[in-house]
Write a structure and sequence with these properties.
89 residues, 4 helices, 0% strand, 51% helix, mainly alpha
Length: 89
C-alpha cells in the first residue's frame, strides 16, 4: 500500500534528484524508497538486490591496496621492483 509523504529540501537537491531519476528511468519517490530501504535494512521488495558476497570474496575484500598517484603510470615490472625493495630492503 502506497502512502504519500512530503519532504522538504533545498531546491537544487530536488532538481538534481529529478534529473537523476529521469536519466535512470525512475521517479524521485522510488529513489527515496529504495534509499530508505537500503539504509534501514528493510526487506521490502524494491527491485533487484545487490549480489551477496561469498566467504572467499568477503575474506579478500580490502586486501588489495589502490595505487598511489605517483604509481598510476608505472609498469607492473616497476611496481613489483618497488614492492620488493620496500619489503626486503
Amino acid at each position: 500500500m502506497n502512502t504519500k509523504l512530503t519532504l522538504v529540501m533545498e531546491s537544487d537537491v530536488i532538481q538534481s534528484a529529478k534529473a537523476y531519476a529521469d536519466r535512470h528511468g525512475t521517479s524521485v519517490s522510488k529513489l527515496v524508497e529504495q534509499y530508505i530501504t537500503l539504509v534501514s535494512g528493510s526487506d521490502a521488495d524494491t527491485g533487484p538486490s545487490p549480489p551477496k558476497r561469498g566467504p572467499l570474496t568477503s575474506a579478500l575484500v580490502g586486501s588489495i591496496q589502490s595505487l598511489k598517484r605517483d604509481e598510476m603510470n608505472a609498469s607492473s615490472k616497476e611496481l613489483v621492483g618497488k614492492a620488493k625493495a620496500e619489503r626486503f630492503g
